[in-house]
Amino acid sequence: MTGRxxxxxxxxxxxxxxxxxxxxxxHGAASLFGVLGGAAGTDGGTVAAGTWPGWYAAVIQLLAxxxxxxxxxxxxxxxxxxxxxxxxYFDVHQSxxxxxxxxxxxxxxxxxxxMLLLVFTGSGALGLDRLLATRGTAAVEEQRPAEPITA
Length: 151
Hints:
Layout: H1 2-33, H2 54-70, H3 74-93, H4 100-103, H5 106-121, H6 128-143
């Protein structure tokens, strides 16, 4: 049983990456473009362009979420996303109460830890990171000249 689960691990990580990336990107799109209910607390509106930290957080969410979703530069994008969510938690939520359930910071905490996990696991199977890495190593092997066989 463990062997089967271990062999499926890259695919489970990829599914986790896709779901987390999609949810993160949609959260940013809602804040920037007012889709899917808009930014929190705006009744379907958007975050004003250039406002600190909301607009910048939404841009990070949209871009980093899309990169994580695609599995492109996953570790770097997840690192930036995790940091932005840690900032959001400690700057916005922590001052209200100690525990996330009390201060409304559950989503920020979950995104922070989920993205931090992706920093260490990478994109898993089916990510563009792996596709480009295997394509790059195949091109290098094709360019390598054949070595003569010596007796």
